[in-house]
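#struct-pred

JT: dropping the chains for the assembly here, can someone run the whole complex?
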Amino acid sequence: MLYERLLAAYGPQQWWPAKTPLEVVVGAYLTQNTAWTSVERSLQNLESSGILTVDGLRKITEEDLRTLIRPSGYMIRKAAAIKALIAFLDCAYGGSLQQLAEESPGTARERLLALPGVGPETADAILLYALGQPAMVVDEYLRRVVTRHGLMPPESKYSQIQALAESAFNADLPATRAQHYNEFHAVIVQVGKSHCGRVAQCESCPLAFDLPVTPPRSQSAA
DNA sequence: CGCCAGGCCGTGT
DNA sequence: ACACGGCATGGC
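RK: done, full complex below.
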């Protein structure tokens, strides 16, 4: 299957470029419809100002937060959303992402989705990459891979594509699923970014994503 | 200069 | 329920 080939070809990425779970979460907010290079700038601003902590984000004014995240766009919405998250953590989890991670995956997802600025992809990215829970992340890249190969109709919804992607890992032990979801999404993003340089240009490329750039080896455990 | 980026939300049908 | 436009900024 395509999934196994991609995983075998690109290998483990041990992905999401961040040092701390909180940095993952902030990056997940900032990267919404935004180029990652722009997100890096905002994260750098936050780090330089010592704001990349729960306490830092708690104490900074929303206005100042907007200025720091300006490079990644939507600064008014995103600053408000990040502030709302911190307030939520303070209110329900003692300001600790770790305590949120102790909730069952379903409960944590439901709580995250109730927050402003958190939709299904952001929620699943937080669950998977910050909280270590097995949530399949469906982004624009995966949607295009799936629909372009005719695996699902173009009008498929998030949950449909997510179910299909998860089904590729049904044979996994539950304890290993988070790790495989992690690598799978990482690979999808790598392919999406590297193939044809820009994703949009792949629309006219029938072979887009058909073949791994690196020759596939033997089937992986996934 | 115009299009795009690892979405989400409010509004109108 | 679902399509559709707006949101902000920087890169190419």
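JT: nice. The radius of gyration of chain A is 18 Å. Chain A has two domains: 2-13+137-204, 21-129.
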